[in-house]
Design brief:
Blueprint lengths: L1 H5 L23 H4 L2 H17 L8 E5 L5 H12 L9 E5 L3 H11 L8 E4 L10 E6 L8 E6 L2 E10 L4 E7 L6 H10 L10 E4 L2 H9 L7 E10 L1 H4 L10 E4 L2 E3 L10 E3 L2 E2 H10 L6 E4 H8 L1 H6 L7 H14 L1 H5 L2 E7 L1
Parallel strand pairs: 1-2, 1-4, 2-3, 4-9, 9-13
Antiparallel strand pairs: 5-6, 5-8, 6-7, 9-15, 10-11, 10-12, 14-15
Helix pairs in contact: 3-4, 7-9
């Protein structure tokens, strides 16, 4: 999964400017629905900033990871600028992007625009560190490589991928898990050591969440907020016996399938986030008390002042378009319930 998504030349995400997200791509995200997502996040960020920095004596620092082509960054900056937010002038928006080629693409897109004094691609979370700030990611964790385990004769086996040189194709095999495999031990702890599953039951585990949250928790020295938006479940639902084939899904041309070996590098592969794992690892890393709410509730709270400003008015064409986007983002049958928001504050 790591190679298929992140190989420097052939990986699905080897370019930020590729057409993989949006109407002409393979799947939609809340960002590709339109700029209302950024507008609402800018309100949420403003409110958080007032709590983290009540004296208003620090410039607003936003750190985003998994920013793809930087569209959400531009939407948030535009929203702050257009409503003359006092935070706009001195703000800094740092995009964490480990790949040099993508940082270059992002810089080329930003140079010479009104974003260039405020928007900076940086190579790591460490390089994005600040005294205070707001961290943000949308659909980052579902794109982290996962391991797959299958329940076989009363124990878990590792689902491995190799290249069959005689057949000239990728194949899957089920292998014993090596002793002392710390990531597997964490998976066992999460799934429950004493549980039994139907034969052939498949599930996923994302080893990277632990290491990521450890790094991410060190971002802000003297106070910060973390907003993590993604789809997923808490452990009980994640490991429900009814979910026999796991959560791994592939996306191509707005069609979904389960064969992760089909057209690697040309297909998006993702797995649901296990929020119990995220909250536990965050607590261990010094970010206790994470709050989980669905995107509908989070964005509706953030939309309060924007919705009030339209009260008693017949919406013009722009407001009507925004309201349609708001509905797509918050309606329980659309993106409102499947997406969850985890917030940490320190
Ligand atoms: C599903 S896309 C979401 C893009 C965007 N946030 C949106 O909502 O439209 C996942 C993004 O995360 C990026 N990504 C994955 N791992 C990353 C990492 N360790 N650091 C920075 N970006 C990463 C991928 O390159 C890809 O752009």
């Amino acid at each position: 999964m790591e190679l298929a998504l992140y190989h420097p030349q052939h990986g699905y995400y080897s370019s930020a400017i590729g057409k993989n997200i949006g109407r002409s791509g393979d799947f939609f995200t809340s960002v590709s629905v339109g700029d209302t997502f950024g507008l609402l996040l800018s309100h949420a960020i403003e409110k958080k900033w007032q709590r983290i920095c009540p004296d208003g004596d620090n410039p607003l620092i936003i750190v985003e990871q998994g920013a793809h082509d930087g569209q959400l960054a531009r939407d948030i900056i535009d929203a702050l600028r257009l409503r003359n937010s006092p935070l706009y002038e001195s703000m800094q928006y740092r995009i964490v992007e480990p790949r040099e080629s993508i940082r270059r693409e992002l810089r080329e897109n930003i140079d010479g625009t009104l974003y260039s004094p405020r928007l900076y691609p940086v190579e790591s979370l460490e390089k994005a560190r600040a005294e205070r700030g707001v961290f943000l990611c949308n659909e980052l964790l579902d794109a982290f490589p996962v391991r797959r385990f299958v329940w076989n004769n009363g124990k878990w086996k590792d689902v491995c991928v190799s290249f069959d040189s005689e057949e000239g194709q990728l194949i899957e095999s089920e292998e014993d898990v090596a002793n002392g495999d710390g990531d597997f031990d964490r998976f066992l702890n999460l799934v429950g050591e004493d549980r039994d599953f139907p034969e052939g039951y498949v599930t996923e585990f994302c080893p990277g969440v632990k290491y990521w949250v450890e790094e991410c928790s060190r971002l802000f020295e003297n106070g910060g907020c973390w907003i993590v938006i993604d789809y997923g479940f808490e452990a009980e639902e994640y490991f429900s016996e009814l979910r026999k084939t796991g959560t791994l899904k592939c996306y191509r041309d707005h069609r979904t399938h389960d064969d992760a070996l089909d057209l690697p590098g040309e297909t998006d592969i993702s797995a649901h986030v296990n929020f119990t794992d995220l909250l536990r690892e965050a607590e261990k890393a010094g970010l206790p008390g994470g709050a989980l709410s669905d995107q509908s509730r989070f964005l509706t709270r953030a939309a309060e002042s924007w919705l009030r400003s339209m009260e008693g008015q017949i919406p013009d064409a722009e407001s009507a378009a925004r309201l349609r986007q708001f509905q797509t983002l918050t309606h329980p049958a659309m993106m409102g319930r499947s997406f969850q928001v985890v917030e940490f504050e320190k």
